Amino acid sequence: xxxxxxxxxxxxxxxxxxxxxxxxxxxxxxxxxxxxxxxxxxxxxxxxxxxxxxxxxxxxxxxxxxxxxxx
Length: 71
What we know:
alpha+beta
């Protein structure tokens, strides 16, 4: 397995811990189960962060609804 950078966040903009956990889904990545926040929580977080990169991510995600794993 190739080395990978993993960011562990203890606080994110725009969401409480409970909001981030609510609706989170777990996916298998390279044989490991990894939790991810829900798409709407991610969008809320990225809008609240407001950095150009985050706003670009919001625009991309909204333009690509097929990436919605919550369906």
